[in-house]
Amino acid sequence: MPIVLDLQGQVQGWEWLLANLGPLQVERAAAASLGQPVFRLEQVRLVEGPAVQIVRVTDTRGLPLEGVQVVRSWSGAPKLPTWPASASRWREQGVCGPTGRSGAVGFGLGAGDAYQLPSAGTACVWVADPTGASDRIDGLGVLGSERRLHLDLSFRVVQELQPILPESRPDLSPAQTALRALDPPSPPSPPPVPLPLSGDQWALLIERLDQVIQALEEQV
Q1: How many domains does the chain have?
Q2: What is the pLDDT of residues 171-186, one digit of tens each?
Q3: By three-state DSSP, how is residue 200 classified?
Q4: CATH number, domain with residue 10
Q5: Dihedral angle sign, alpha carbons of residues 128, 129, 133, 134
Q6: What is the per-residue pLDDT across 184-213, written as a single tens digit (0 to 9) for each?
Q7: I need a labelling partner for 214 at 20 to 30 A (CA). Which of 73, 90, 96, 200 fits?
């Protein structure tokens, strides 16, 4: 899971974040193949005040990446443009913008982003770049009417060296787990199909049948 920083910049656990900001979820992306780049959600930081969500993207060395498209999606957002299939497309609706020289892009937060506990926000964010697939974080918004808390995000390119197995994902919601339990079982393997006999096999079979018939005649 990503590093969690509180308002003072102190590291906290993921459970602390869920208790204070609601049921956030992270969906981890699978690389196209081992060794391929993936945009991992590296850090989330609790922020108070400014109605702008900052998303930063860095390379494998932690240096800012300029010109990387980042998507913020929510129900009712406009339809997203088309882009290469190698870039993640978790939703069909949202707004996207490129990172600047600092490797960051900002998304304005409005009245529709507000929510109260125990609910979660309705927005999600991911990187949409043909370099590789991207994690997605759900449940984003602005918590509260007085302090107005939200999360700033940081993604980092990593070289995926281990496959991400669906069974090992820690971020599946109860609803997702229930849906997976309803998946139909794999169909049984088809029965083996007998192969036709060759000429030599037919000759051997006829010879053995003649021997059986001859033995039966001798017993009569």
Answers
A1: 1
A2: 445 554 444 444 444 3
A3: helix
A4: 2.60.40.1120
A5: negative
A6: 443 433 333 333 444 555 555 556 556 656
A7: 200
Euclidean distance between CA atoms 21 and 119, whole angstroms: 9
Residue 125 domain flag? yes
Q: Would residue 191 count as lying in a domain?
A: no
Look up the domain containing 45 and give its range: 3-158
Task: Provide the Cα torsion 39, 142, 148, 68; round to 10°.
Answer: 30
Which residues have a Cβ under 8 Å from the Cβ of 140 and sit 6 or more positions away?
Answer: 24, 53, 72, 113, 121, 122, 123, 124, 125, 150, 151
Q: Is residue 195 part of a domain?
A: no
Distance of alpha carbon 99 from alpha carbon 187, whole angstroms: 47
Q: In sequence order, what are the residues at sequence separation of 6 or more whose Cβ sits closer than 8 angstroms to the Cβ of residue 117?
A: 22, 143
The number of beta carbons lying within 10 Å of the beta carbon of residue 156 is 22
Instruction: Pull the structure tokens for residue 105.
Output: 């892009």
